[in-house]
Amino acid sequence: MKKNMLRIVAILMSLTLLAACGNKENGSAGVNEDTVKQLEEKIVSLEADNAALKEENEALKVEIEELKASGSGGELIEEEEEELPVFGAEEDGTMTQVISIVVKTDEPLLNKMQMLGDKLSEEVFGGLTMKALEIKEEDGKDILYVDLIEGSGEVGAKSWIFDYFQGSTGGNMTETALSETFLQREYGGVWIDGVHFTLDGEKIEFDHVPNLSDTIMR
Questions:
Q1: What is the pTM for the complete model shown?
Q2: H or E stretch including 83?
Q3: Which of 11, 39, 70 delimits the end of a domain?
């Protein structure tokens, strides 16, 4: 920017000298007029460049101030992450951690629920699908709704009804794994207050998983 200003000053000085010479030498007036016109055009071009540089400079100043205000100092901020356990159960119903997942702390809560469900399905329930549908406020409490999707019915395919809702031991293990994984009772941050399960959109009513028929509170 300073160089442009110096060039403009130099050109103006040249114009002054040319004008003075023109006053002394009338015979070269035509040549001087052409030269002056060219110099004036250069001045216009340099002034345009100078204006563009000023605009760019102001934009950079604004960006710097915004970075300072955000407290980032221009440095990238690392996203915080947290680890959430996925639970299974022993035959006596004792809860046990089978694995954990790592999620971004600011990940939407419903997304965290779906990620927990996907890993729980993979590790404990033979890949059977479960969908975290929504979190609804009921009587001042945040309730998660999870729909369990029954298996295909093909030979060898897993089934909620025939593989995980049967027998008192199996039913107890299923209830524990499902409820404890989604409720995360030891989690200290913002979380749901309860979870409600359905099977293919319908109420679950099987003798060995009685707790799955109602909302399970944290």
A1: 0.65
A2: strand 81-89
A3: 70
